[in-house]
Amino acid sequence: MARVRVRLGNWNRLNRKWEHRVSMMKTMVTQLLEKERIRTTLAKAKTLQRYVDKVVTLGKKGTRDAWIQARGIVRTDRELHKLFTQIALRYRERSGGFTRLVRAGWRERDAAPVAFIELVDRPGELRPAGPALQRVDPLSVRAWMQMQLGQTPREASPLLPTVVRQYLRDENRIRDRTNVPELGDG
Questions:
Q1: Kind and range of the H or E element at 38?
Q2: Ramachandran sector of residue 104 (left: φ over 0; alpha: ψ -120 to 50; beta: rest)
Q3: pTM exceeds 0.85 for this model
């Protein structure tokens, strides 16, 4: 009988058997939650990043089921408690990207690429996190562009479909609401 090769997708195998790889990732997740920055090889750090993002998402959920799932990954009760209290509160507004990889050169003995992996938005981080991106309403952008071009608000014709008339009303309302200074104003 032929052996069937199981595809793992994009998960890096790290030249280890499945049991060793999973055990190593669980230990590294626990260490990262404890110390909030660890130094490891680049391949391990990239794989660890995916695990940590999933665990932090479980911590943000805060449900009993999420606690049980996270308990299967995080090895110590102290880090599990920290995940569901401190870390969940720190990242309550952030929707993803809880970790940062910073390349740190090569290891001396085997020249393997080394990187720091750290949790973002914490004191003492290697590189400060950028501000969270704000979602921009496309109607406000269009109204601002029309105001810059000097165009007048479009009036909704009664012959237009209801959806288009509502869109034009919203666009005019947003333009009236926004007081955007001219580009030449300082």
A1: strand 37-41
A2: alpha
A3: no
Which phi and psi angles does 134 have, rounded to 5°?
-90, 140
| DSSP reduced 3-state for 32 | helix
What gap in Å lies between CA 149 and CA 96, rounded to an integer?
Answer: 37
DSSP secondary structure code for residue 163 in this structure = H
Tens of pLDDT, residues 90-132: 999 888 889 999 999 999 999 999 999 999 988 888 887 766 6
Q: Residue 119's closest CA among 82, 154, 147?
A: 82
Residues with Cβ within 8 Å of 175's Cβ and at least 6 positions away in sequence, in order, are 143, 144, 146, 147, 153
Strand order in the sheet with 99-106: 37-41, 113-119, 99-106
HEC secondary structure over 89-129: HHCCCCCCCCEEEEEEEECCCCCCEEEEEEECCCCCCCCCC
**Is the pLDDT reported for residue 177 higher than 70?**
no
Are 35 and 58 in contact, with CB atoms under 8 Å apart? no
Contact 125, 118 (CB under 8 A): yes
Instruction: Tell whether the torsion through CA atoms of 139, 144, 145 and 151 is positive or negative.
Output: positive
Length of the chain: 186
- 10-14, 68-72, 93-97 — which is least confidently predicted? 10-14
Residue 126: other Cβ atoms inside 10 A:
11
